Amino acid sequence: MAAKRTEIADLGEFGLIDRIKNGFSLQNLTSLKGIGDDTAVIDIGTENLLVSTDMLLEGIHFDLSYMPLQHLGYKAVAVNVSDIAAMNGKPEQIVVALGISNRFSLEAVDMLYEGIRAACSNYKVDLVGGDTTSSPSGLVISITAIGRAAKDKTVLRSGGKPNDIICVTGDLGAAFMGLQVLAREKEVFQTNPNMQPDLEKYEYMVGRQLKPEARMDIVHELAEKNIVPTSMIDVSDGLASELLHLAKNSGAGIKIFEEKIPIDSQTYETAIEFHIDPTTTAMNGGEDYELLFTIKPSDFETLKNHADIHFIGHLHDNASQHLMISKQGTVVPIQAQGWKHF
Ligand code: ADP
Ligand code: MG
After folding, report:
1. Do 215 and 171 form a contact (C-beta atoms < 8 A)?
2. Count of other CB atoms within 10 angstroms of residue 261
3. What is the mean pLDDT of residues 227-239?
4. Whose CA is nearest to atom 4 of ligand 1?
5. What domain range is 44 assigned to?
6. Gap between the Cα atoms of 280 and 172, Å rounded
7. Do 144 and 246 reside in the same domain of the chain?
8. Rounded Cα gap, residues 46 and 273, in angstroms
9. Quick one: 257 and 202 in the same domain?
10. In angstroms, how far is CA 259 from the centroid of its own chain?
11. Residue in 212, 215, 232, 222 with CA at minimum distance from that of residue 306
């Protein structure tokens, strides 16, 4: 009888991570939080150390025909800083591991590091090490970010309580629409190389795809206002998937209102042009790197006039019920789509 073979696609990315997690138990008291949050949380005495790693692979996460190397370097740092932000922490160091083929010149590596340097300067983090190896053809960049948070200000995905208000920063779906625009322009260019891409109308979305920012500004503002979210995650896979992570970890149900989901008007119009439901770009698009968090109802007063924080719904006590009230008033179950790399 042939040995059993299970496809990874049958489990999906999250199923696979759960399976890995279940195979390990934590042995050190200093490992406060292991697999399952935006970063690991490590007890270093008076504060917590935060560690997170994210890998970007050519052909999966980026296409160098439209991703300039400086932007790639910047983005690779920003997505890691975003995970530290999602713990309400402050990033301090990064290490960078690079797999690179002879397709790339020294000048190309310089450009990549120019982006990394710009991000280090912007987020005030130090590049303190890494690893360099050859790769048969594609480019691989894996960054580990290290940060810190006060013990009583470290925010997990699991602290949400019924009636807490669900907040999201910025706007959603733009990075996904930016990718659709870039893919379309690439196709047009391949069939007719004399065509000049017309990206002006789509500038905001393309910028969100190529040069995302981690919302450290929000982390600092929340600290100034003395607000500690009850739970938090960054939006890397799409709002739906992240909402379900908060719900599952907090043991609470979700109720959000479609009309409250922040979508930029350019994103909205471009989605219509591409025959995509604008809400779907926010729910299932991903790569927004905004912060999704919950606050105690008593903190609403302090944040309610904030220009860049949007209140989209609340948690409730039916932990198996995750709903969106549509613009028409119908009830739609929230389902995760996220990225399917497998
Ligand atoms: P994020 O989107 O915030 O980067 P992920 O969905 O990539 O988070 O990962 C979720 C959790 O699973 C994190 O705690 C991460 O460290 C952990 N994780 C992901 N892949 C692996 C792996 N191959 N082995 C162990 N832990 C993993
Ligand atoms: Mg994250």
Report:
1. no
2. 22
3. 97
4. 38
5. 32-153
6. 10
7. no
8. 53
9. yes
10. 22
11. 222
